[in-house]
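Quick look at the format.
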Amino acid sequence: MNHLVNLGVAGFRMDACEFLFAFWEHIKPEDLRIIFGSVKPLSSENGFPQGSRHFFFQQVIEVDVEAIKRQENIVLGTITKFSYSIQLGQLLTACLSMMDNVQEIV
């Protein structure tokens, strides 16, 4: 990650972190905190203000059988909830459906 920071990367997405914890039981959220903390600050040579830190976000599916819940990962960075895209898709489908009905009325 430090090499990527040298290249100007300012953020990292950690995909399916809860599975990392589920498959390797000896790995805990605290281990990711150590890894994230070891990434050096962003470089002012790449246009970032002095001392700027990188942005971490994690994708979490969050089903009932997961070993680690979303709340346990929040302290490590922003969380993107996998089901959000499903819920958004359902909402958009319903909205588009209503628009079709409006055209029929007019």
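Next, a different chain entirely:
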Amino acid sequence: MPAVPWLQILFGIMGLSRQRASKMAHRAMLIIVFVCRGERGGGCAKSQLDATVDYARGNGIRQLELAVSGESMAAIRFYEREGFHEAGRTGGIMHDSREIDDVMMVRRIEDYKTSRGHRGTQIAGTVIRSGKRPDELGSSGLQWL
């Protein structure tokens, strides 16, 4: 079997879904946010979010939105450190016969570039893959799909 010249490891993934209606096209929702358990707290989520914000800003998005479990205090604190604020709560999921709220969070993006001519929902994502740890990657390890 030939030797593998490099090893790719998936550390995390983050997606972005732009609103469809023209009056809301300046808004996008963070979706599919995931960081491997062993990589949490090591900068992977921040690297992904920074790349996602840069991508959004470069495509005319002024506001990012997300929903996070009301019981996920570590995630809520992370998003607050990154400039998101709570915009409200909604009924989320049922777990063991009890309802867990979703916390709706919003972040405005400054210094946006106007985007014209988009059609429909645009979905993009970033994946971190490398033989290096996320804090060693820099932006070169981030790939937009």
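The chain is about 20% helix and 40% strand.

See the schema section for token definitions.
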